[in-house]
Amino acid sequence: MAGRVKKGIMGIKIGMTQIFSEEGKAVPVTIVEAGPCTVLQKKKVETDGYNAIQVGFYPAKEKQVNRPLKGHLKKAHSKPLRYIKEFRVDNVDDYELGQEIDVDIFESGDVVDVVGTSKGKGFAGAVKRHNFARGAMGHGSKYHRRPGALAAKGPARVFKGRKLPGRMGGKRVTVQGLEVVKVYPGKNLILIKGSIPGPRRGLVMIKNSVKV
Q1: Beta bridge partners of 117
Q2: How many domains in the chain?
Q3: CA 20 to 30 Å from 212, out of 8, 57, 77, 179?
Q4: pLDDT averaged per 10 residues in sequence order, the chain, 212 residues
């Protein structure tokens, strides 16, 4: 059903490479080390207002986990985990506390949405950040890469939402409709066609596509 998450997993982006299809065509893919994820909590409409499972991923050291979180993890008989996220599902009764979700929930040909945090690029001007056109670079022009006039003459103020220089990147980004090319359950690896958000070693969430 479109718009519902039926399956999802967290992973670490390893990097990009290419593989060759049966026809001999090079296919660019991103390698993700996905799972195993542990089910830590089940949320239901009756108690929380929505159906979801809370899952943990990636081993952490004991000293990196505070006491409240240790107690929360203990309910699911889980070891210390670094990342905790939620996936909304249709039926939480399909899952049990402490259950591990592995990469084999996906298979070649599946269409997925990938959520990650884009690379932070620091402070950037309007040309780089918003793809503004620059001014003339010669013939005495002294206007090159500035953002241009800011305010309307009547209100005499800058309107909210005006595209200006500022912090670029470092935001939550979702790329939809990507194809799963190959899955390696024994190695916890999944190969996704194309690029996905974030730097290497960045956390990503892989879910079945909501528009399929």
Answers
A1: 172
A2: 1
A3: 57
A4: 69 94 91 91 89 91 89 89 90 87 91 94 94 88 86 84 93 94 92 94 92 76
